[in-house]
Structure formats: structure tokens, C-alpha cells
Amino acid sequence: MRVLVVEDEQLLADAVATGLRREAMAVDVVYDGGAALERIGVNDYDVVVLDRDLPVVHGDDVCRKIVELGMPTRVLMLTASGDVSDRVEGLELGADDYLPKPFAFTELTARVRALGRRTTVALPPVLERAGIKLDPNRREVFRDGNEIQLAPKEFAVLEVLLRSEGAVVSAEQLLEKAWDENTDPFTNVVRVTVMTLRRKLGEPPVIVTVPGSGYRI
Q1: 11, 30, 40, 52, 83 from 33: Cα distances, Å
Q2: What pLDDT is stored for residue 87 in this prediction?
Q3: Is residue 203 very low, low, confident or very high in pLDDT (cuts 50, 70, 90)?
Q4: Beta-strand relationship, 127-129 and 97-100
Q5: How far is 143 from 130, CA to CA, in rounded Å?
Q6: 2-117: what CATH class?
Q7: Which of 3, 14, 46, 127 can pair with 116 through a Cys bridge, CB separation 3.0 to 4.6 Å?
Q8: Domain limits of the chain?
Q9: What CATH code would you report for 127-216?
Q10: 182: pLDDT confidence band, cut at 50, 70 and 90?
Q11: Which GO terms describe its molecular function (predicted)?
Q12: What is the DSSP string of 27-72?
């Protein structure tokens, strides 16, 4: 899942991004609304965690732009105000969910994951295919009933492959969904991660390489 965090309180923004990365999400961070619009114009995000009171371009205008463009991106709006009227106003702007500050990080994570499931065709919360069972909320992976410990990027790649439901996923698509914008697109990070993931998942291999196209399960 690819997430953009837009928050002008830099310590909070960086803390949220670090926490979401530990949950195997690819996260970009910006600190004002203008930078948010630039990123949205370049990258495809599943979820934008959007502070409402932003400098340069207000969060309301960022939200309006996402809606205007007809993007599948879901918006989780944050605000220091917890008034019902503010929550209603934010939702009427086009936000998909609303979370007042201060918030529990576990709740933020759960809401981001729930919104991420709504950016594509609805899938069950627990993904299963070819003997693999992946629970994004619990960060657990099992093969034939045996738990497998994965690093965050390995988990993210496996989740993308399982969500494709057997379709081929290119290396570029994996890079887009499982890594943030600071990753060099010319590295072999995808290939190396897939190799490590294959080894951890064990025999017989479940990740198939489709020459010239990508990978599938």
C-alpha cells in the first residue's frame, strides 16, 4: 500500500510515516499542501493522510482537488478540532474518513488499512492463495498453517502479489506500491526482495516469474 502523509507538524508527520513503514506500507511525507498537490500529480497513492490546516495550500483545497480529479485515492483527514460540525464539513468536502487529534496510532493504522482496501475491488481482510494466508492487520503470514516471519518490504511485496489475485505484477508496479519515492528505480531491489521472499516461503515455489512481464502467485 502506498500512502502520502501531509502534515505541517514535522515531528508528527515523520513519526506517523515511521510507524506506517513498520506496518509494511510505502510512505512519502510532505509538510504543506502545495507539495502534496505536486506528489499527487506524480505518484499514485492508495491513501492520503491529510492534515486539514496546512500552509501554502489548505488541506480542504487538496481534498477538493483529489475529488475533482476523480482519483481512486482515499483521504483520511486529520484535524486538531473534534467538533461534530468540523467532521461533517470535512466529509462533505470529499474526505473518506476523519480522525481528530490527538489520536491513537493503532486506530490511525486500522483506518488507513480499511481505506486502502476500498481503493480497489473489495477483497477480504485476510488474503489467501496457493496455501499462503496473509493478515495485514495482524502482520502475520502463514503457509500451510506454518507462520513465516517476513521483513516489512517482503510483507509488502507479498501483499501486493496476493491482492492481484493471480494477475501478473510488473517490477515497476511493485516498486510503486511497496517502496517510497526515495528508492532508486534503477536498482535491483525488487528482484532481490522477491528472491528472499521466495526462499522464506519455501518449497515448492509459489511466486512465478513471467519473463519480460513481472511476477504472480
Answers
A1: 17, 8, 10, 9, 23
A2: 67
A3: very high
A4: unpaired
A5: 9
A6: alpha beta
A7: 46
A8: 2-117, 127-216
A9: 1.10.10.10
A10: confident
A11: phosphorelay response regulator activity; transcription cis-regulatory region binding
A12: EEEESSHHHHHHHHHHS--SEEEEESS-SSS-HHHHHHHHHHTT--
